[in-house]
Each structure stands twice: as C-alpha cells, then as structure tokens.
UniProtKB/TrEMBL annotation:
Signal peptide: 1-17
Annotated ranges, domain Rhodanese: 38-106
PROSITE patterns linked: PROKAR_LIPOPROTEIN, RHODANESE_3
Record-level Gene Ontology MF annotations: thiosulfate-cyanide sulfurtransferase activity
InterPro entries: GlpE_sulfurtransferase (IPR050229), Rhodanese-like_dom (IPR001763), Rhodanese-like_dom_sf (IPR036873)
EC numbers: 2.8.1.1
Top-level taxonomic group: Bacteria
Protein name: Rhodanese-related sulfurtransferase
Keywords associated with the record: Signal, Transferase
Amino acid sequence: MRVKVNALILISVFALSSCKTQVLPENTVQTDIKQVVNSADVVLVDVRIPEQYAEATAKDAVNIPLAELSNNIDSLKGKKVVVFCNKGIQADQAVEILKKKGVDVYDGTTWKNVKAIQEEK
C-alpha cells in the first residue's frame, strides 16, 4: 500500500512540475483595439474579397483578400496592422499568417466593429 501511495505522489509531482506557466511575448499582450484602430500609424486591412470590400468597409481600409495576403507581407512589415472581415473567421486566419511572418498585427474582427470604433471618436 505504501508503495502505491509513494508512486501516486511521485506521479503527481511530475505531472504538476510539467505544467509551467507560459510567459507570453510582449507583442501578444492584450492591447486596446480602440487605441490601435484610431492611431495615426495604423494600416487597416479588409481581408474579404474585392466585391465585399466594394459594398462597404471601414474608413481608410485597404483591401488585401486573405488568399493574396501572403503575397503582400513585405508591404505590411514594420507597420501596425489591423485585419478584419465579415464575421472574424478570415481575420483570425490573417492574424495567424501575419504573426508567423513577424508583422505587428491586431484582430479587428469585423469591418462593422472597426467602423463603429472609428465613429466613436
């Protein structure tokens, strides 16, 4: 019985010691999206297809469809970028692509969200 208890304690110690708190890099710290959207040096990127972009988008947004995003990484490097789409799904994908390439990127979720933030000023 004592061996089983010791084995259980030993297993618990190993399991708990393997659960380390992950320190997030500084660029992943939560940032107030309102401040980013309204900053003077931000590039707003609508990742929807051109037809959707033409219907409506946020003020001063550029259209780089998600399918073409990888071809435009160099033009976004060194800039603060907010990406958005219709429902946030493509924006999430765009964030992952851009983060992997070292772009300072923020998720604006939807064009309506970004537009509402701009109109709050």
